[in-house]
Amino acid sequence: MTSVNQRKLTLEARLKELNARLHVIDDELESHNSPDWEELAVERETDEVLEGMGLSAQEEIKTINAALLRMDEGEFGYCVTCGTQVSEERLDILPYTPFCQKCAAEHAKNQ
Fold first, then answer.
1. Burial of 88 (0-12, 13-18, 19+ CB in 10 A)
2. Residue extents of the structural domains in the chain
3. Which of 12, 19, 33, 36 sits a CA distance of 20 to 30 A from 77?
């Protein structure tokens, strides 16, 4: 059984990775300014991919911060929808998940 403190360390490490990735993405996006039209077109395609990666990282950062807040409030490991305990197996896979498996499936179906 993984303790909340161990999960917190894992989430904080992931948060650090994501913030570093966002910094690299931002630097890369700012560096594109080729005067050549063909190169500029390739850069724009790359920018779209980088922006997608950045948005994904921002979303994960948001969910990790929410999980860290739940830890601070003593509510981590419990489903935010129904209040049941989230399984250890689920937390091992998605340590920042706010949902039990049943509520996650329902949430995904409604998205």
1. exposed
2. 1-76, 77-111
3. 19
Structure-token pair, residue 86 = 């989230």
Distance of CA 86 to the CA centre of its chain: 18
pLDDT more than 70, % of the chain: 90
| Tokens describing residue 10 | 């894992």
Q: Which residues pair with 78 in a beta bridge?
A: 85
Higher-confidence position of 36 and 68: 68
Please count the residues of the chain: 111
Among candidate residues 34, 30, 37, the one with its CA nearest the CA of residue 51: 30
First to last CA, the chain: 32
The pair phi, psi for residue 7, each rounded to 5°, is -65, -40
DSSP H/E element including 66: helix 37-72
Q: Hunting for tokens 């979303």 — which residue is that?
A: 59
| Rounded CA separation 80/64 (Å) | 14
